[in-house]
Amino acid sequence: MRNKKLVLLIAGLLLISTIGSFAETKKLRQIGQYTLSRCKGGIPTAEVMKSIVDRYAGDIKYGFDLVGYGDLYLPFMDQLKTASFVEKSLPIGDKMVWMLFRSRGRVKAVEDLEWAGKAPLDVFSFTVKKNYKIYEFIMPKPCGNVSLRKVEEFIPTAVCDLKVSPSKANLNDPITIDMSGSQHAKSLQVDVFNAQGTKVASKALAPDSPKWQTSFDKPGEFTFKGKAVNIKGEASTCEAKVYINYPPECSLNLSTTKDYVGIPIIIDASGSSDSDGQVVKAEFEITDEAGNVVDKYTVTQKPFSWEKVFETPAPYTVTLVVTDDFGGVSKPCRAGLEAAQKTLFVMVEAMPLWARGSYGAYLGARAGIVYKIVPGTLDLVLSGGGAFSLKDEPWKSFFTANFLLNVHAGPVFFGGGAGISTKVKETRESDFELVGSLGFNLFDKNTSAAALFGEVRVPVGDERSFSDHHKLVLGFRFLF
């Protein structure tokens, strides 16, 4: 028992003589007696030292809590895995904030420590960063004691990172500005400049709110200049660019601004252009006087034109919008168009004709005009031509002319009017006649028509009886 007490007394005296007084800076004159963990095999490598620390992680955490640095334990263990160990020799008189060691099997710590050995102390040195501070730790060779040598304030330079997406966009498209990649910043700022260098927008951001969305109503190149400021007020800059696509410009031309129903017109967008690309699509729209859409047409091939036939007479508005190869859309171009019903037609007729008086046979042809007073309902017909006799004397060729009104009921029409015929025989005089007609339309389009018709011509006068002086006509009529 007395020997055991003697050993403890000697150990206590050695510890006191080694570490010195607790009331002032402790003097550390020897190393290796009270090791936190001992390495075997001489001076270890840095990797061996890392493995030792990992093996004694629980003891180290206890020691960190003991000296009031518990919040540094996790960064210490995490950064130690990738830390670069630097071999140093601490000069005599170099101080340490604290050191962890083991005495009588228990982890202990001593603070405010100074190396007072006879020669510089060889150590492994590595650093841990936390909350803008750098902690330098040392591990003396060959013992595994962990010691905090010094703490220095470290305020890193802010890293400015600015991303803008998309890098090319159309007018009023959303543009996202993202500075979340910036580091060590207390505040963030973005300024936007146009191609002329004029500031057009500015936005203050923060590390916890590093994104901003904006848009542009003017085309061209815009530069985003970012600034990241650290807690010391030192700034770093970065920038990115975005290009806002110039929209195309439309050009609308009509082959005529007044057209007849049924006659095609050309609606032409081939003059449209794009200053920074090319036109790839033209969209046409036709609206009536009330604004109702009556037709649409899209073309994606040059020459970007549309041949259009109007079936109903009315005033119309043609609207054109073109799209470029980046999806930019032009402002609309508009043009007015008056589609009218064709009312005046040229007419030609061919017919056999019989004149009463043993019925002289004739072949006739007439030309004239047809004016549609009420299209599809009432026509005015003016015509004239010749009838060529197919018999010898006393029959002779003669001239005939008509002034008629025709009423339509679907494909059937009938009417009447006045006519004249020169004499059909030398023994007769020219006749002023009443003319009656009946016909059937083979087709009746907006721009042309064809019909078969019959005609009875009755002379006016007391001396001219119907039975001896009427004429019968059966013919074909074409209007264009």
Write the layout of secondary structure elements.
Elements: H1 2-19, E1 26-28, H2 46-55, H3 57-66, H4 73-80, E2 86-90, E3 95-103, E4 106-115, E5 121-130, E6 133-140, E7 146-153, E8 163-165, E9 168-169, E10 175-178, E11 187-193, E12 199-205, E13 211-214, E14 220-229, E15 235-244, E16 253-254, E17 258-260, E18 265-268, E19 279-287, E20 293-299, E21 305-308, E22 314-324, E23 333-340, E24 344-355, E25 360-374, E26 378-389, E27 398-409, E28 412-421, E29 431-444, E30 449-459, H5 466-469, E31 471-479
Parallel strand pairs: 1-4, 9-15, 17-23
Antiparallel strand pairs: 2-5, 3-4, 3-7, 5-6, 6-7, 8-10, 10-13, 11-12, 11-14, 14-15, 16-18, 18-21, 19-20, 19-22, 22-23, 24-25, 24-31, 25-26, 26-27, 27-28, 28-29, 29-30, 30-31
Tell me what the structure shows:
By secondary structure, the protein is mostly beta strands. The protein has four domains: 16-153, no CATH class; 163-244, Immunoglobulins (Immunoglobulin-like); 253-340, Immunoglobulin-like, CATH 2.60.40; 344-479, Beta Barrel (Porin). The chain has five helices and 31 strands. It has helices spanning 2-19, 46-55, 57-66, 73-80, 466-469; strands spanning 26-28, 86-90, 95-103, 106-115, 121-130, 133-140, 146-153, 163-165, 168-169, 175-178, 187-193, 199-205, 211-214, 220-229, 235-244, 253-254, 258-260, 265-268, 279-287, 293-299, 305-308, 314-324, 333-340, 344-355, 360-374, 378-389, 398-409, 412-421, 431-444, 449-459, 471-479. The protein has an eight-stranded antiparallel beta barrel with strand order 24-25-26-27-28-29-30-31. A hairpin with a 2-residue loop joins strand 5 and strand 6.
